[in-house]
Amino acid sequence: MYGKAPMKIFSCRASRHLAEKIAAELGMELGKSSVTEFSDGEFQPCFDESVRGNMVFIVQSTNPPADNLFELLLMIDAAKRASAYKVIAIIPYYGFARQDRKDRPRVSIGAKLSSDLLGTAGVDRIITMDLHADQIQGFFNVPVDHLYGSAIFAPYIENLRLSNLTVSAPDMGGSKRANAYSRHLQADMVLCYKLRKKPNVIEEMSVLGDVEGRNVVIIDDMVDTAGTLVLAAKKIHEKGALSIRGFATHPILSGNAIERIENSPLTELVVTDSVPFINKSSKIKVLSIAEILAKTIQAVNLNQSISTNFVF
């Protein structure tokens, strides 16, 4: 217990791997919960201990399938109906975040719909990391604590002690993120410019800037099919870079992503454990975000500032 209200941490099924680490960092036991499954695929989560008057933290990334999001919604609803004092959703990876705007006619804005569903379920606060677009915070009508992978990645890069360091974004959308790393690490920056035919299919890419004889780190919020990351690495390698490393907070790694990474010029790809995946690549290194999430949970429960958890 840390604040006036007792604190309990629970997990949905998709993020139990991370929730157990967070609870261990806080010196707590993970709360007891279970899920009843019906033969037609319907499921019903249940708290197996009292949460009345408690600050309830529920850990769940909402990557597809949609059951992950819906299970979190049901857990929030169950906590509110069980008279929890506050319900805070810890969403390390906020799914459907690529649908943050109408980029063509007659499409949904999935990120906004997800935020509306969480609000309707009764969530009191959101803790998340590296949203695909910062403005998604504005979709919520409750406080959002938006953490950044830089708290994990920047110290790792500094410890590599790379000479002639250059920071790159794999596309123009990541330029703000790459610029923040560049300023903090006092390194040069280059950009990759891509044209897409359709989602996950890149038509053309070019590198804007000089990378010859440089050690390059490519910064992104997520790696899905790894198509953009690997193509960027190939283009940078063709331009004469000494080494190329990728850093992506959320390792979605769908399709042939791991095979692409293995056959790419990347020296390594550094990711976090925001979503579970089976690491079958010698090039992929996983860093845990459990400590930074535990510190944020503790600060939220004590009504303290979380700004100390930010590197930049």
Produce a short descriptive summary.
The chain is of the alpha/beta class.
Report on this model:
The protein is an alpha/beta fold and 312 residues long. The chain is built from eight helices and 14 strands. The chain has helices spanning 16-25, 67-81, 110-121, 150-160, 175-185, 227-238, 257-262, 290-301; strands at 7-11, 33-37, 43-47, 55-59, 86-91, 125-129, 144-147, 165-169, 188-198, 201-208, 215-223, 243-251, 268-272, 284-287. Helix 1 crosses helix 8 (290-301) and helix 2 packs parallel to helix 3. The radius of gyration is 20 Å and the shape is globular. It starts with 6 loop residues before the first strand and ends in an 11-residue tail after the last helix.
Q: List the quaternary state of the chains.
A: single chain
Structural category:
alpha/beta
Count of discrete alpha- or pi-helical segments spanning 4 or more residues: 8
Largest beta-sheet details? 7 strands, mixed
User: What is the element string, with H for helices and E for strands?
Assistant: EHEEEHEHEEHEHEEEHEHEEH
Give the proportion of residues in helices: 25-40%
β content, as a range? Answer: 25-35%
Radius of gyration: 20 Å
The shape is: globular
End-to-end separation in angstroms reads 30 Å
